[in-house]
Amino acid sequence: MIIDCHAHLVPPPLLEEVRGRAAEFPSLRLVESGPGFGFSFAGSKPTRPVGKPLLDIAARREWMAKQGIDRQVVGGWLDMYGYELPAKEGAAWSRLINRHLVAAAEADRHFVPLGTVPLQDGAAAAEVLEEAMAAGCPGVMIGTQPKGTGGVLDDPALAPFWEAADRLKAVVFIHPVFESGDDRVHDYGMANAVGRVTDTMIAVARLLYAGHPLRYARARIVASVGGAGLPMVLGRLKRNHALDASLADPEANLRALWFDTILHDPRALRFAAEVVGAERLMLGSDMPFPIGDLAPRAIIAAAGFEGAERAAMETGTAAALFRIG
Question: What are the phi and psi torsion angles at 271 (to 5°)?
């Protein structure tokens, strides 16, 4: 059984229900664009329209078969998480998304759903997390910026969420948001090439220095995009820690995380494995986005992983983490 630990899905029935119930969310505006639509939450900049690859389950299954992938862990689409919504609306919005992700996974057992939570409110996020896991999600995918654009994951106001994740042994898959917060990446395709990485690096580095991975050690925290360069800059993180003893140990906390393999360079994957351990890495694609790795098993082979290490990356680690039987 080969498992892709990182993909995104928008079940088509979700969009149908959103269109019919949009009036129930006063802070939501649908932004029509051709045959589809995007979203504006609480007056925020409209998202891109939902792309067909996020919706096309038949094409996804065909791709999985070609790649020899048996199960795929699917979160929603970060653009539509709606962290800008008021907390009560945000909770209702998250519940709506989660219900459809769970239904899609129940209809097609190739998929394993990761829910979303209203990260703009720690207590509400904890409540929705518990509901999502009771409904069949092994955990949630969260954005790096809990205010939509801005905010930090180590905010004390999010303690109820992290405490619930720890108590429930939930997967918390940390994923970059669309806007990295740095206008310099808006040219040359750098929002994808660099912005997603720096956004994730900053968000996760804060968690390392705050000590969250060890404080909430029963939670299963995943840092996407191959750890976002953190293994490469670990020496610098450690030097900063040596200068300020009030910071948590970044190396110990980094080693308490899990990572996908979306690095696009076998040398980088081999180095990440040397730093954090091959058993902490899991096959990932970021499907259906072009910046992802749409032949994700190739990098594992090219990096020279075989035997038990390759089996852990392609199957064992994700099966245990996401509770896939």
Answer: -65, -45
- CA pair distance 212, 250, nearest whole angstrom: 10
Given a contact cutoff of 8 angstroms between Cβ atoms, the answer to whether 73 and 6 are in contact is: yes
Domain architecture of the chain: domains with CATH: 3-321 (3.20.20.140)
CA distance 75 to 209: 27
Reported as type and span, the H/E element at residue 175 is: strand 171-175
How far apart (Å, rounded) are the C-alpha atoms in residues 258 and 280? 5
Give the pLDDT confidence of 184-225 residue by residue, as tens digits: 999 999 999 999 999 999 999 999 999 999 999 999 999 999
Distance CA 173, CA 158 (A): 15
* Site of tokens 């009030």: 246
The answer to whether 121 and 87 have CB atoms below 8 angstroms apart is yes
Q: DSSP secondary-structure letter at 313?
A: I
DSSP 210-251: HTHHHHTTTSEEEETGGGTTTTTTHHHHHHHHHH-TTS--HH
- Show the 3-state SS of 14-75: HHHHHHHHHHHCCCEEEEEECCEEEEEECCCCCCCCCCHHHHCHHHHHHHHHHHCCCEEEEE
pTM of the model: 0.96
Burial tier of 165 (Cβ tally within 10 Å: 0-12, 13-18, 19+): buried
CA atoms within 13 A on the CB side of 232: 12
Residue range 29-86, pLDDT digits in tens: 999 887 889 999 999 999 999 999 999 999 999 999 999 999 999 999 999 999 999 9
Distance from C-alpha of 192 to C-alpha of 307, rounded to nearest angstrom: 33
Distance separating the N- and C-terminal Cα atoms of the chain? 10
Structure-token pair, residue 269: 């994957």
